[in-house]
Amino acid sequence: MLKNDVPADCRLMCNRDALVGACTNLVNNSLEAGATAVAVQATLESDELLIRVMDNGPGFGKVEAKRLAEAFYTTKSHGTGLGLAVVQAVVKAHQGQFFIESPEQGGAVATLRLPLLRNIG
Fold first, then answer.
1. Would you give the end-to-end CA distance of the chain in angstroms?
2. Do 113 and 44 meet the contact criterion of CB atoms below 8 Å apart?
3. What topology does CATH give the domain 2-107?
4. Strands 48-55 and 38-45: what pairing?
5. pLDDT at position 121, please?
6. Which residue spans within 46-85 are E strands per DSSP?
């Protein structure tokens, strides 16, 4: 499911393929972790675009949360442990921030905060 509350004139200075790849990676991670429903939401907050990938999977504990974005850390038997590290690197390269959390009710929420392109002149 995709929910978009962003006006059509919203602009980012970005590498579109890298950002699409990061979001695709988050959706794939959700499905591989056992989620049966994944939602992607885009909203504006101040001068930032927020992209959230939310799922109904099993979630993760607080100890695990601290390590999820570390390179080569994985909980999967077939994973490389690079997925979330790459997402974090892509977001950082766009001057943004990346967060991932597991609410008490379960599931996971990954948030990309990206600065909007400001008009010059």
1. 38
2. no
3. Heat Shock Protein 90 (3.30.565)
4. antiparallel
5. 44
6. 48-55
Q: What is the pTM of this model?
A: 0.81
**Helices 83-93 and 16-32: angle between axes, nearest 10 degrees:** 150
* Tokens 């990061």 -> residue: 22
3-state percent breakdown (helix, strand, coil) of the chain, nearest 5: 25, 25, 45
- Where in the chain are the domains? 2-107
Q: How far apart are CA 69 and CA 88, in angstroms?
A: 7
Give the span between the Cα atoms of 56 and 63, in whole angstroms.
20
The pLDDT tens digits for 56-104 are 998 776 666 565 655 545 555 555 555 788 899 999 999 999 998 888 8
